[in-house]
Amino acid sequence: MALLVVAGTSGAGKGTIVARLRQRHPGIWYSVSATTRPQRPGEENGREYLFLTTEDFVRLRDSGGLLEWFEVYGHLYGTPRGPVEEHLGAGDDVVLELDVQGALAVREVLPEATLLFIRAPSHEEQRRRLEGRGDRADTIEARMAVDEEYEARTGDFDHVIVNDDLDRAVDEVSAILEALRRRPA
Ligand code: ADP
Ligand code: 5GP
Predict the structure, then answer these.
(1) What distance in angstroms lies between residue 101's CA and the mean position of ligand 2's atoms?
(2) Atom of ligand 2 nearest to the CA of 8
């Protein structure tokens, strides 16, 4: 059983790496977060996120339904508590993809969590990836400014992974997962 928390900078490739990891290890259970951010084209409610109104998000949060929650890049994001506890209880491998603050908050509640920080090889490459993904210019600037603060926290993470070559980065995360599975209970 492993609890992997994947965080890092925006556009570093967290989502891409997690998707590859799930293909390689189909038994992994991935936590779908709740968010108030608008749905992007191609996203499906319940698959990438539970897209909630601010009112519904606040109701869920105030009833204790979130393991952690934060405002990230101007919107609310949170991890529904119940499903994570159920899957950990069942001994499943659980993967959360969160922002840096959320990852550190999860470690406070679930100290067995292993925290990964994913970064792009350079700021120029990070910007290229955000542009390539179709993010708006003002969104890119805002995210990169917040990311400078996040980068100062890499020392709090168990592993820092530079996503230059995607296959190599996925191999690295996969090896971490396999080592955690072999760890004595
Ligand atoms: P994040 O989830 O960290 O915000 P994404 O997974 O959405 O980032 O990736 C941002 C963009 O970068 C996507 O267009 C993705 O296809 C691309 N990308 C991811 N990993 C690499 C890589 N190793 N090399 C080049 N492009 C990549
Ligand atoms: P995006 O809007 O690009 O999908 O995600 C923006 C940021 O929110 C990313 O850094 C992502 O990891 C983070 N995020 C997604 N879900 C959660 C969550 O449940 N909690 C926290 N704290 N951050 C989240």
Answers:
(1) 10
(2) 10
The answer, yes or no, to whether any atom of ligand 1 lies below 6 A from the CB of 16, is: yes
Using alpha carbons, list the distances in angstroms from residue 20 to 105, 135, 151, 169, 170: 25, 22, 24, 10, 7
Q: What is the CATH number of the domain that holds 138?
A: 3.40.50.300
Say if residue 185's pLDDT is above 70: no
Ligand 1 center–CA 144 separation, angstroms: 15
User: What is the structure's pLDDT at 1?
Assistant: 84
pTM of the predicted model as reported, rounded to 2 decimal places = 0.95
Residue percentage of the chain with pLDDT more than 70: 99
165 is in which domain, residue-wise? 3-182
Total tally of structural domains belonging to the chain:
1
How far away, in angstroms, is 126 Cα from ligand 1 center? 8
Q: Distance between the two ends of the chain, CA-based, in angstroms?
A: 8
Strand 66-72 and strand 75-80: the pairing is: antiparallel
